[in-house]
Structures are given as C-alpha cells and as structure tokens.
Amino acid sequence: MRNLNILLCFLIIIFISSCSKDDDGDMEKIVEMTIYPETGIGGFLFSTDVYGEFLLFSESDNQEKRILTNGGNIYANLNYEKGYEYKIEARKTFLKNPPQDGSSINFEFIKTLSKEKAITQNSEQQFEMEVGPTKVGFISLLEDGIQQALFVKESGEDYKKPLLNIEGFDYEEGYTYRLNVEKIIQAEPYSVKYVLIDIISQE
C-alpha cells in the first residue's frame, strides 16, 4: 500500500510539472491527439431536438474515443477530410474559471503531425433500422445552418441519431418505421449513403 501511495504521488508530481500556468491561473499542457476518419453525433446543452456532427478524438494518454465539443480552434485550423486519420499536436487548457455552460477543458490546434488515408476499401452492410415519427434538427460538420433530419436507430446501436436521407424512402411524419437498409461506404472519394431495401413495418 505504501508503494502504491508513493507511485501515486510521483505520477501527480509528473502531471503538475508537465503543465504550466498562464496569467489567468489556467493549467496548460501540450498533448498529441488522434482525429478519426469518421465523425460522431452529439446533442446541445439547451436543446432536446437539435443535434450536431463533431470530430471524434482520443489523446495519447487517454485512448477513449470522444466527440470534440471544446476545440473550436481545431475545427478552424485542421482542414478536416472524412476518411483520413490525423495526428495533431494541441494545447490542452484546464480552465480555472470555466464558463457556466461550457467545458472546463479546452483544446487549441498547434500543428498537424500526420494525415493518413484510413478508409481504403468500399464496403456494404445490411441491417434493420428504426425511424422515429418526427424529424430533428441537424447541424452538419461541413455545412452551415440547421437541416431537418430523420431520427433513426440502427440495429445493434444504443442511441438514436439524425440521418439526412435514405435513398428510395418516402417518409411520412407521424409514423414509426422499421426498415431494411443497406449502408454503402465509398472509399474514394469518401462518402456514406443509406439505401432502402424494404419497409418491414409502418405504425
């Protein structure tokens, strides 16, 4: 137990010494981040029916994949293309006085270390999908403004997400659908589309 406490203290000292304080008392450190070839979906704090598309990332010392909601500087400077995996260097700031409705951590882009094509082969996958009775607002990563999107749940997934279009599907609001769909990923140029195979039920 004593050895564990010593090790813990040592790790804390290393962490503190690797950070620096700015004039506001915020703690900063330089980190390496992985930006993934596909994006993620997240909600907004004060809205229950508007969703956004965000970059997916992890850090070299934290391999958990998360959506990047606190890195506006990275969005502005990375020149992101779907289908590519990026390694970047960023400044991670632990805010002493974070905004009331914001994160206590912020990321700022420093430079791109590498950019590699990650999705190199076309693929097709068939599965069932549930489509909800009302549409939701959706803010795309690469387009401005709020668009209306289907609210869907793919079989095997835990959460619903917005989806702009299913080719061949004539949606009528007020009904819950169960569909057979095909997801087609094209590697070059990168694109993802959903195509209706058949309607299982409409209630």
Instruction: Report the major sheet.
Output: 8 strands, mixed
Mean pLDDT: 86
Stretches where pLDDT falls below 50 for ≥5 residues?
1-18
Structural class assignment: mainly beta
- The shape is globular
Q: Report, as a whole number of angstroms, the end-to-end distance.
A: 60 Å
What topology emerges from the helices and strands here?
Layout: H1 2-18, E1 20-21, E2 27-35, E3 40-44, E4 47-54, E5 56-59, E6 62-67, H2 72-77, E7 84-94, E8 105-117, E9 123-131, E10 136-139, E11 146-154, E12 161-163, E13 177-186, E14 191-202
Would you write up a description of this structure?
It is a single chain. The chain is mainly beta. It folds into 2 domains: 2-117, no CATH class; 123-202. The chain is 11% helix and 52% strand. The chain is built from 2 helices and 14 strands; from the N terminus they run αββββββαββββββββ. The protein has helices at 2-18, 72-77, and strands at residues 20-21, 27-35, 40-44, 47-54, 56-59, 62-67, 84-94, 105-117, 123-131, 136-139, 146-154, 161-163, 177-186, 191-202. Strands 3, 4, 9, 10, 11, 12, 13 and 14 form an 8-stranded mixed β-sheet that branches. Strands 1, 2, 5, 6, 7 and 8 form a 6-stranded antiparallel β-sheet that branches. The longest helix has 17 residues, at 2-18. The model is unreliable at 1-18 (pLDDT under 50).
